[in-house]
Design goal:
The protein is of the alpha/beta class. It has 13 helices and 5 strands.
């Protein structure tokens, strides 16, 4: 009995020294190059699917992808044995639909093999009218998405094609808020569009894929977040990556319970604006406070935030912000030393038992 306890204690003490040796366990992971929103999106109005004159929905669409370089692209690929769900814009012409499918890596002739739904312009207005003017939403539904369910722990991975306003970081932030988990997603347009209405398609396809409905409150908050993040990113002198990071950081603090009311959220926003070099007007700060109050009511899980939008929170960690969760480094070290104390107690209780 004594030997068994002694062996366990010596093993834990040895592990203790290994832990404290530089370059061993719990070393910080190297900084990843693929982080969200490295290149800022161009300054454009958030027009989702406007007619944009007589040129809409006419003629053969080119399959050439025109969009801003986004180094955060997760390079999502649809494989032959995947079982993706599609949500296509209901107003796509046959030529436009062929373009969108091509960008997604799907042959038009194989469309019958997939689960397909269609997003109407009426649905877009239903979800987005509270945050975007009717003229900006327009009268055509072109945004299209394909989504594939992945294994638990895979996180949210996104690629965009012909999306020139919404960044991948914006999508990830909003989708985590909505409660979407472990999915590969491609968002595509027949030609360059903003992509704000694509979120409606993602919600629809995800619901079809999982058979579970997302709550009305989470959908509303996610759409609010996407549109507001886009507007803040469009402010002159503000980088989209800074806004994405700031929103993610504030959201984490809300999820942790550190920000409980309008006053504490407002103070955190003031500090975050300095930390992330984002200059906002009083009105914009008020809009951000309202968004965070909505997020607080959703009772998001901080571990889910970190897991599903890992690239965003890795970037925050590399910037020096604390994004450790209950499974983070501090908790692991605390559990380790707690284990040593328990082992010592067991050791001496075994000596005299």
């Amino acid at each position: 009995m004594i030997k068994r306890h002694r062996k366990r204690l010596m093993g834990l003490i040895l592990a203790w020294f290994v832990l404290l040796t530089p370059g061993t366990a719990f070393a910080q992971a190297p900084e990843e190059s693929d982080v969200d929103g490295i290149t800022a999106t161009p300054s454009v109005e958030p027009e989702s699917e406007t007619d944009e004159g007589a040129g809409a929905d006419t003629g053969m669409q080119s399959t050439e992808v025109s969009q801003t370089k986004d180094e955060a692209d997760d390079n999502v690929v649809i494989e032959e044995d995947d079982k993706p769900y599609l949500a296509l814009g209901a107003d796509l012409s046959p030529e436009q639909q062929a373009t969108v499918l091509s960008l997604m890596g799907i042959a038009s002739g194989d469309l019958g093999n997939y689960d397909v739904s269609y997003v109407t312009n009426t649905e877009e207005h239903t979800y987005l009218d509270a945050y975007i003017s009717k003229s900006e939403i327009g009268s055509k539904s072109w945004s299209s998405v394909v989504i594939v369910k992945r294994e638990k722990g895979s996180g949210i991975n996104i690629s965009t094609k012909n999306i020139n306003y919404c960044t991948i970081g914006m999508y990830k932030n909003a989708l985590v808020t909505a409660g979407i988990k472990d999915a590969d997603i491609i968002v595509a347009g027949p030609r360059p569009i903003s992509g704000t209405a694509a979120l409606v398609g993602i919600f629809k396809a995800y619901t079809d894929m999982t058979g579970s409905s997302l709550s009305k409150e989470s959908i509303d908050t996610a759409l609010n977040e996407l549109v507001l993040t886009g507007k803040l990113s469009d402010i002159e002198g503000v980088e989209s990556e800074d806004v994405e990071s700031m929103v993610a950081y504030l959201k984490q603090k809300v999820a942790e319970g550190a920000l409980k009311d309008e006053k504490s959220i407002g103070k955190a926003i003031e500090e975050a604006c300095d930390d992330f070099s984002v200059s906002l007007s009083d009105e914009e700060k008020s809009q951000l406070i309202e968004l965070m109050l909505k997020i607080k009511d959703l009772d998001l899980d901080v571990d889910s935030l970190l897991d599903q939008a890992k690239s965003i929170y890795d970037k925050l960690s590399n910037m020096g912000f604390d994004v450790s969760s209950g499974d983070g480094l501090i908790a692991k070290i605390g559990d380790f030393f707690s284990g040593i104390v328990d082992a010592i107690k067991d050791f001496f209780s075994g000596l005299f038992s």
